Amino acid sequence: MLAVVQEAATASGGLDLLGAGIGIGLAVIGAGIGIGQIGNGVAQGIARQPEAAATIQTAGIILAALIEGAALFGLVITILFKFF
């Protein structure tokens, strides 16, 4: 009975890696799409109002940093799922 339980526990070794890969992949794709949309909005805003370029650029950088933080959080959670 113990051998069957141990075999079942080790058989799922590849699935946790697959789940970790899918998790971080989705986090990175989402972050990339979000940062692309922010860059698009910043470029359009600066094109419409060049005199407000510094303010728009600062807001864009802050928003991009928040999205990167969310992607980094996804990476940390994925690593935690992998090892714990």
**Beta-strand proportion:** under 5%
Count of strand segments: 0
CATH architecture descriptor: Up-down Bundle
Unreliable runs: none
Series of H and E elements: HHH
Rg is 21 Å
Shape: rod-shaped
Mean of residue pLDDT values: 85
Q: Major β-sheet, in short?
A: none
Number of domains: 1
Could you characterize the architecture of this molecule?
The protein is mainly α. It has a single domain, classed as F1F0 ATP synthase subunit C (F1FO ATP Synthase, Up-down Bundle). The protein has three helices and no strands. The protein has helices spanning 2-11, 13-48, 53-83. The chain starts with a helix and ends with a helix. The mean pLDDT is 85.
Q: TL;DR of this structure?
A:
The protein is mostly helical. It has helices spanning 2-11, 13-48, 53-83.
Give the topology.
Blueprint: H1 2-11, H2 13-48, H3 53-83
Helix pairs in contact: 2-3
Characteristics of this structure?
84 residues; mainly alpha; F1FO ATP Synthase
